[in-house]
TrEMBL record:
It comes from Paenibacillus lactis 154. This is 3-demethylubiquinone-9 3-methyltransferase. The keyword Nucleotidyltransferase does not apply. Residues 11-130 form the PhnB-like domain. Coiled coil: none annotated. GO terms for biological process: methylation. One of its GO terms (molecular function) is methyltransferase activity.
């Protein structure tokens, strides 16, 4: 059996979060449907994102939807991007950290021949960015 793991984010604002990620690392939205597409949806929820599918940073799939209540983020979960180009990794780190918190600056690490940086973006998502040295 073979399966593909695709991250799914329940967001406080899926449209804004997706737009931020596309601007930060490149990508595009492939599908977007709202709860208004489903029959019987209350007027107050019709514009909420039911399903948003996108590719980021050269083809990585990410799926999102809007939360109906405050989205609770977990420090136990995050996203990791591995780059083959140091400047692209540095740019992604800088872009994703805008308005967020830099936890570990993107730098060559003493414990191995690779670059690593960690941040929490303005939507509360933890990112780890890596470039093999």
């Amino acid at each position: 059996m073979q399966a593909q793991l695709i991250p799914f984010i329940i967001s406080g604002d899926a449209r804004a979060q997706a737009a931020f990620y596309i601007e930060a690392v490149g990508g595009e939205i492939h599908a977007l449907s709202t709860f208004g597409d489903a029959p019987g949806t209350p007027e107050s929820s019709k514009d909420k994102v039911m399903h948003l599918s996108m590719t980021l940073a050269g083809g990585n799939t990410l799926i999102m939807s809007d939360a109906f209540q405050d989205a609770e983020l977990s420090a136990n979960m995050g996203l990791s991007l591995s780059f083959d180009d140091e400047e692209a990794a540095r740019t992604a780190y800088r872009n994703l950290s805008a308005g967020g918190v830099e936890k570990y600056p993107f730098a060559l690490q003493p414990w191995g021949n690779f670059y690593y940086g960690e941040l929490v973006d303005r939507f509360g998502m933890t990112w780890q960015l890596v470039k093999q040295g």
